[in-house]
Each structure stands twice: as C-alpha cells, then as structure tokens.
Amino acid sequence: MVKLLADAGTSWTKVLELVEDKPQLTNSPMEKLINTDSCAFEYVQSRDINNNAVFGRVSLLSTRLINQHSDILFDAATGHMSFRRVKKNGKYENELVAMALGAMKVVKEPDVTIVDLGSRDSKWIKYNNFKYKDLDWNGTCGSGTGATIEMVCNFYDVDTDELPLEKEKIAVTCGVFGMEKIMDLVARGVPSEIAISRYIHGIAFNVWNFARCPDKIYLSGGLCLNKCFVNSLKLYTDVHLLGRFILLEGLY
User: Fold this and answer.
1) Quick check: pTM over 0.70?
2) Of 92, 117, 133, the domain-final residue
3) CA distance 154 to 214
4) Structural domain boundaries, residue 15
5) In terms of domains, do 10 and 134 share one?
6) What is the pLDDT of residue 109?
7) Cα–Cα distance between 40 and 60 in angstroms, integer?
8) What pLDDT was estimated at residue 156?
9) Strand order in the sheet with 216-221
10) Helices (H) and strands (E) in the chain, counts
C-alpha cells in the first residue's frame, strides 16, 4: 500500500510516497507524473517518529500540475493548497506543527531557531533545551518570501545561480515597494543582477530580524537553493541548510 504525504505550497508541491518495498511504487497515483519533465524525484530512506525505517520516493512539482490531477489525494498533508486534497480519513497538519516536528527529527540541538521561507509566507520556531520557546508567522507581506524574488528574476531574465553577494542592501519594508526600488536602480544604470542582489540582501536581513536576530538559523524552504540569499543571511548569522522537505518529515 502506498501512502501519500504532501507539502503543497502556492508555487511548489513536495510529495513523499511511503511504501514497504520499492515495487509498490508502480501502483502509486504519482507514477504517471514521475517521468515527466515537470517532476524531479529521488528515492529516500528515513525513519518515522517511532524510529522505524521507512522507504519512499520524494518528488517536487509545480502546484499547478498537481492541481490538474484531482484523483491524487493525500493521506497526510500540510500547506496552503492541500487542505481540500486530503483523503476522507486522512490528516491535515498545521504548517508550523509539521515544521516543528520535521525539524526536530533532523536537528539534534537543544537550543535552536528554525526558519522556513515559502512563496508567500515566512515562519520561525525557537527551542530552548528541546522545549518550545517562541514562534511567529508572517503570512501577509512579501518582504520576506520567495515569490517576489521569483517574479523579479523572471521579469529581468536573471538566473539566480549567477547573482553575486552584495554588501549593500535595499531596505525592503514591502515586497511591492522593494520591486519598485529595483526598477529605480536599473533605470539609473545599475545592472539588474546587482539591483536584485541588493533586494535579496534586504530580504535576508528582514528574515534575520523577523526571527529575533539569532546567532544561528536552521533554514528550510526553497531559498536554501538561492546562494545569494544564503550568503546574504550569513552576513548576520550562522546558517545551516535543512532543504525544502522538512515539513514532509513532520507528517510521519
């Protein structure tokens, strides 16, 4: 039997198929999507909350694509776009809960701040001596999220892998106003890559400040893959990357 777990965000959906042995994956409703150009996947071995070994396949695909397949329902899910895709007897988990459970399976430190950045929200949790201490969730402003970065990079046809680290930053108090400042810089002759890098630096500073300026951050989400963002954040704190599948870890 195949169990489907999902973290369905606004832009991207991460799906974990759990099975007892690999051949069972051929019976998964995800099988028809796995070999398409729009789906990246890898096989994984992990352990559940009871420390039992589990085997599965984790995939990353656009939420738009997964929404085209109404027959794909989840046994457990989290994220903005998954609430109506959970099976009748399945479980929908709050994102902060999934994030906390997933991170604490991976991070074995008593005092830690975990930050997750999605397309349209940012959130963090702080632990002291393995116990919850504080948290916050910003779900209303694009000044600290990935969607605005994706939009400006697409607009200027800029590859995020080629963005340099800029010591100067744009004060990003609002995602929309921040994009306006990028356009102002470009209009004054600043290369678009430099302007966007300054904008990303501003977002990194906001994220660190939003998380109460910790000495160390464990970072989760798609921005783990953005070198400019990670290097900008490292100007303020010690950064450890958790990748973009931590919320899935909190579902089993």
Assistant:
1) yes
2) 92
3) 32
4) 3-92
5) no
6) 93
7) 5
8) 95
9) 131-138, 122-128, 112-117, 216-221, 238-243
10) 8, 11
Average pLDDT over every residue of 43-67? 88
In whole angstroms, give the CA distance from residue 211 to residue 138: 11
CA distances from 195 to 48, 167, 233, 243 (A): 44, 12, 17, 26
H-helix or E-strand spanning residue 6: strand 3-8
Burial of 70 (0-12, 13-18, 19+ CB in 10 A): exposed
Q: How many Å apart are CA 9 and CA 81, to the nearest integer? A: 6
Q: What is the pLDDT of residues 128-180, one digit of tens each?
A: 999 999 999 886 665 556 788 888 999 999 999 999 999 999 988 776 777 88
Q: What is the reported pLDDT for 139?
A: 65
3-state secondary structure 116-130: EECCCCEEEEEEECC
Within a 10 A sphere around the Cβ of 4, how many other Cβ atoms? 22
Distance CA 249, CA 173 (A): 32
Q: How many angstroms separate the CA atoms of 30 and 25, rounded?
A: 8
**Domain tally for the chain?**
3
